[in-house]
Amino acid sequence: MSTETIKKSAYRVCETTGLNIFKKAEFFTKANAVLAVIFLLIGGIAALTLALTRWSNVMLLDDVWYYRMITLHGTNMLVFWIIFFEMAILYFASTTLLNTEVFSKALGYISLVLMSVGAIMTNYIILDGQADVMLTSYPPLQAHPLFYLGIILFAVGALVVCFNFFATLYKAKKNKTYEGSMPLVTFGATTAAIIAVVALLHGAAALIPTYFWSMGWAEMMDPGAYRLLWWGLGHHSQQINVAAMVSVWYFIATLSTGAKPLNETVCRGAFILYILFINLAAAHHLLVDPGLSSEWKIWNTSYAMYLAVLASMIHGYTVPASMEVAMRRKGYNKGIFGWFAKLPWKDPGFSAVALSAIIFGFIGGITGVTLGTEQINIMAHNTLRIPGHFHATVVGGTSLAFMGLCYYLVPLIFQKDFYLKKLARIQPWLFGGGIVIMSFGMSFAGTYGVPRRLYDSDFSGANLETGFDSIAHIFLGVLGVGGVIAFTGLLLFIGLIVAAVFFGPSLKGKRMPTWQSEREQKMTDELISKGYEVEGEDYHAKTPGTIGLVIIFLLSFAIYYFANWAALTDLWHIG
Amino acid sequence: MEEEKIHPIQKFMDNIWLLLALGIAVPSLSYTFWGLAEIYSLAKGILP
Lengths: 575, 48
Fold this sequence. Notes:
The complex is a heterodimer.
Chain A: E1 11-13, E2 20-22, H1 23-54, H2 63-95, H3 105-127, H4 145-174, H5 184-214, H6 223-234, H7 236-257, H8 264-277, H9 294-303, H10 305-329, H11 338-341, H12 348-371, H13 374-380, H14 385-414, H15 421-447, H16 470-503, H17 518-530, H18 535-538, H19 544-571
Antiparallel strand pairs in A: 1-2
Chain B: H1 8-14, H2 16-40
């Protein structure tokens, strides 16, 4: 029981979940989420222009604007959108789920100002044409000092949120506002926050000396060391996404189906594997760097990193398995996959999260582990296969999961209802489908050797005959079509969110309208309220459907992995 | 009242400060310091 004295005016009780929503934390959750969506729109517009430029029959932009837009796109999508949204998750997970108010309102404001000023400054200087260095900004490419300063301010602001988050956890534990261990979703958010601290420290180590260099106060940093430190920000920050995304999977699985993790200790153990090993994956980016040994590369990208892959596979099993158990408890026991067909697919929050898990695992995960193998990487490094992989993880996985969360965040936190619900139901399919098509286009064009981050795939004007097979250009067209579809899905998402948040019908004092039938919702509510008190009855429930999905996944992985080794033997004859 | 015994693994999982310390230490040693040591121990390249 809580020993913290909480003023009644400091919180409201959510009509749907019964959880206490603390007003200060609610403000910071809302502010960070709104800012995230603004930067998502900027990054999305840049994405459309890039897709229409890589589509070789269109080539929308000229070379200068191509590199400007790729800088704008990467910075807004991989840094501002995703980290602002993760900060919103940290506020929610540390307060509402632990029944406590945020540690410091002042720190919340300071971080908000630092992050906003940093993001605006960086966007301004990119659009002004003084930072055409792409997100990675490898020296000796040099941007205007405000580019580095903007990202540094943003990172410091995000670090302040992490400090506020840990202080809130400490305060909640000290005041005993929750019993036993913290909830799994908060534990996942804690994992994300720990990874964020590591990422932001690496960002400081790479960008502060580079800022000094751009000001003329210091020598240029060694490019090899810069790459190592920068990827400690660039790739680690994508691991914040993974931890936050998996937390969202668990959260939405519970809200939409009444699922409860099969074994919390195993799930927490998997998060700990993330904390210890997932950050080593940054070494994938340096697999062809000459200054690093094979021992360093293989240890970091294989032996140690596979423990984090194991963690993803644990989550990849426990999330659908918990849903299968919940659906079977509701009576959907027909065959192996009867429960799967009866999942609440009409709920966009659920469908977004389910598609996120499928795209992340089947496309992003399988390609990631394969391309991260040192020998195979040599065929794929700096080709379009790499963006084909990470658009499936970061966009099809994380961004889609965060979109799914928004379908719950808007009614529960903003207390507003959606208009045009039929369109909301198709939005995750449109966005997810577009990303899958785009990812396939990138990956297949990449197998023909088409480089990433290159304006002109034909090398027009070169003295030697260059360019790629016509089939590669077909796949670049597929990339473009997928990009247009995904952008349509993104625009629809932003339109639905803006219409609901600013003009939507108020839900104050009301329950969140269900996306399911009344009967379904009643069964879900019963599972959530009762939990699994009768552990003996269901705790060891069989999950044949999920096992079937796992077998399909492992077979897909084995086929893709060995096909790549076969391709390597074609390329690199031995004997 | 006698306090409920908590399993050591559960205690470890509940200790966010220890997890934070390990979360910083493991990648810093394995990825960052090892990598930087290799890069900075290279002999300087001389242009022809």
